[in-house]
Protein 1
Amino acid sequence: MSSDLFKKAFRVAQDYDVSTPENSVVLYSISFQPTKENRDNAFNYVKHHPERMMIEHTDCGAKLVEMGLSSSDCGLSDDEIADIWSVASKRFIESAKGDVVAFVKGADPRSVFRTQELPSLLNNKNISTINGENKFSFARKFMD
């Protein structure tokens, strides 16, 4: 059962739409963190800025949430869930344009943000700023 769910969810992460309007992407990092503070802050920000979108607001993210991949109660391991979201997140960032807002305080070096999203942000020529700051300057905060 969980193997079937993994295969279906992985296909969703690879194929469902992740596109967003320019200057609308909001990211957060909660992997390996003791709280969901960054996610809560991101959701609160989007609530007050309806022109902004998180991955959960795309067809891909909404389908993954519907499939239960927003918690470890779905029957998949945390690593399997992270693998699926990593694929979706990478595609999400690769299609983004303009300024990105990121709630990534204390982002762990093993997090999806640090391993997938930040490198994709830096490689995306259509993104120049993160939180209004030059994306390369912003990224220096995460150099170990």
Protein 2
Amino acid sequence: MNLYAKLQQRAAAGQPLRVGMIGAGKFGSMYLSQVPRTPGVHMVGIADLSPDRAKAALRNVGWKEEAFSATSLEQAAKQGNTAIIDNGMALITSPHVDIIIDATGNPAIGIAHVLACCEHKKHIVMVNVEADALAGPLLKRRADEAGIVYTLAYGDQPALICEMVDWARAAGFSVVAAGKGTKYLPSYHASTPETVWQHYGLTPEEAQRGGMNAQMFNSFLDGTKSAIEMASVANATGLAAPSGLRFPAVGVDDLARILKPRSDGGILDVRGQVEVISSVERDTRPVFRDLRWGVYVTFAADSDYVARCFKEYGLLTDPSGQYSSMYKPYHLIGLELGISVASAGVRAESTGAPVCWNGDVVATAKRDLAAGEMLDGEGGFTVYGKLLPAKESLALGGLPLGLAHGVKLVKPVKAGAAVGWSDVAFDADAPAVRFRREMERVFGD
């Protein structure tokens, strides 16, 4: 509750947090809009494969030209402005940067960035939840060994869920379920970049004018992003991952009634697991008071006295009065990212990071796939990501969704079936593959 005061102190002392960001897409742009309004933060450099795109993003969010006129990171550090470069590793190796934001969304690149941050002693904020779902537990271990902060990105739903779980536990409650809302129907698992816009109520032309990436938006729709984010939450909180998310249609008034164990009349496999709720009924009717953009936690009274307190203070509960919930209706994406930057920089604390390996995301066929086809990864035409318990993923030899891009099938895979390591021709020497395989050995016992 004192991050702002600490940032003001850094500003007054002339010692701002020195930040470098890799990737200037939508998430990064939203954070950049807030940087000029945040004391004690100096965006030293922005790395993007297209520096012109990064400059356009800065203009779009209101930065003046002189604010990003530095021609080098060294000059930016001396003048207090920002340099635009095309090399993310140059940010990580620079002596003028202390905190790195990875906003690339590329899991293999994200692993490389974290390991470089370990080597060069830079805290890292992982907007790249794809890398965290693929190999987060081992990345966090490497970061701990290096003495740096590895943190999920506040503003993204996983970090907000972690915060709610921490709140409940620190207050003495047992967490029963935690997760987020989304728009879901079972048919969405088969959605492709060619069919995605009809589900958003847009034409392809409207989406193009809005600069929307069809494959990225399809990953939000086909269940992949939900699986990735819930794997990260399960690993960061110790909550269980179910064998496939159920996406029940639930409004905020019914969280405690539905998201409790089956033994008590709910739908959960176990007490203490992640789940995503849908904002639409299976017949496409909208859910009353849905939580499409928000996050939630359900928790237990575990005593008659606490249950009476729930009633006395007007909490919505299940019929027994023993289960209640809290929720946050929105998440503000990059507009809130400064919380992670400040937490890492002034407290050396994360806003969520893996503590175990409970959840994994396995590539699952969207349709019957033939030998010889190339997988096209998250949000594509061939596979979607399904959340599984890590032990189940290991037992079936499932191919992680984060490595299911640009690899060729050597065997056919039926629609709805998991794709296995043995079903594809993969490069065992690729750095991301080696790192993931090492994580399986280290955490798979």
Protein 3
Amino acid sequence: MTIYKTKVYIFNTRGVAQSGRVSALGAESRRFESCLPDHLLIIMKKVVIKKPSKTNMQSGLKKTKNWIVEFEFDSSLKKDVLMGWNSSNNTDKQVSLQFPNLEDAISWCKKNSYAYKVIEGPAKSIKPKNYASNFSNNRRTSWTH
């Protein structure tokens, strides 16, 4: 049987001495360092706004139309000793939001006070081809068979 030791904190919101723990002047039982500070250091979370690239399995562009908002890589990953899996207490990496255009993604980041970085991929140029272009005279490579 395992017994876990825990600390019990008594939050004294008014900062006055409690009965039964008072010394001569009562200064030892008061908390001068706040357990719950009034001024919180606000750290803006960083997100990346990007357009996903197409998959290697197909030539279609199905999932490349929307903009994706993802949280940046978290360096607090730990290896599980038994299985070797990565684990973390931060679950932000599991969140991926999709937006139809870039302006909506940026406005969501500003509304929720996230620092964002936009990554735009290279513009893809589609060259129209048809079956007759296989037999044209101005091919770069010669017809082999």
Protein 4
Amino acid sequence: MTDTLSHQQEEIPVDMLLQSRRKPRISWQVVFSLLMFLYMYLPILVLTFYSFNQSTYSASWTGFTFDWYLKLLKDERIQTALRNSLTVAFAAVAIAALLGTLMAVGLARYRFPGKGLYRGVSYLPLIIPDIAIAVATLVFLAVIGIRLSLWTIVAAHVVFCISYVALAVSARLNGLDPHLEEAALDLGASPLQAFIQVLLPELLPGIISGCLISFVLSMDDFLIASFTAGTGATTLPMEIFSRIRTGVKPDINALSVILMILSALVVLLAEYVRFQGEQQRLK
């Protein structure tokens, strides 16, 4: 019986065996993933395509041009809104970097009554809808009688930026040796010196990663900023929204493409910093 089976296998042509082995196998997971990527990124490709449209309206293609990108450099309203957005983002991220780092270290290194409750409340801005944060901040500012301005947007953005920074720093803290500070204290360092010279350099990749993500989210925010902005405190998303009410123009398409490219670069930089930090920790 065995000899018969081996004889039948020998009679199969070699070419047929090779073709059967080389036959590509496309699973439904691959097809599904490609369809999802197409669904997510096709609108971005269309937006990028029409940002080079010579026509004033995006409905029809009339020719290729870079004029809309050059027009953005001369648009004073866009430049003012961009300066406001950068001011808000840098100020909110700077405050959140300090407070978020201290909060993460305190939750990881110290014990106090209500620690579990405080930990849960501190990360609530990550899951609370933006509209709820916007309304709550507006009501709070009205109750204490603070006039809306650019700095009230900063205060509102600090609320959710702290949580993102603290989350990134906490993830970094979980991979560190908890006895590093104790060793520094045993060698004669003060608690402040142990924090600045030993713990802070180890936390730096997590801090930078959290700050970069918070910066992107702050630049992208429209809802919270529109509720807490005062007169003349127009951020870039607010300016874009006010312009698209009359129709999406190619200059807005060009601005959107630039913002997406810059956001992608910032996110890639954050991931690179996180990856380098992990590699250094493993060494």
